[in-house]
Amino acid sequence: MSMGDGLVIYSAVVTTLSVIVYSLSGWYSRPIGRHLMAYMASIALVLDLGAVRIFSDDANWFLTLRLFAFIILAIMFTLQLGLLIYARYLDVQTDVRQ
Question: What is the pLDDT of residues 76-88, one digit of tens each?
């Protein structure tokens, strides 16, 4: 195992633990909390996939797992983009009313 592999595994563990610790707070009660959780979880998911790949050597089950993970990420990032555009729209509407 190379130093790079070790750093991927370490980063995967840290980001996954961050998601677990953050999930114990009231993150879901505010929009910014949900937004932050979505981004934290997506980073953890990508790093976890990288860590699993180190040990799986692109087995068929891993390729299927990766496909579904990136479908979920694409949907999540599209929803996050929509929220950012909507938030910007609300800011513009507020500026126009003032």
Answer: 999 889 888 888 8
Spell out the alpha helix ranges (H) of the chain.
Answer: 3-23, 31-56, 60-97
Q: Contact at 8 Å (CB) between 14 and 51?
A: no
Largest CA distance in the chain: 60
Whether the pTM exceeds 0.90: the reply is no
Q: Which of 36, 47, 98, 90 is nearest to 69 (CA)?
A: 47
- Report, as ranges of residue numbers, the positions in the chain whose pLDDT lies below 70: 92-98
CB-CB contact of 52 with 65 (8 Å): yes
Alpha carbons 6 and 78: distance in angstroms, whole number: 31
Query: Could you tell me which residues come within 8 angstroms of residue 54 by beta carbon, excluding any fewer than 6 positions away?
Result: 1, 5, 8, 9
Say how many C-beta atoms besides its own lie within 10 A of residue 12's C-beta.
21
Sign of CA dihedral 92, 96, 97, 98: positive
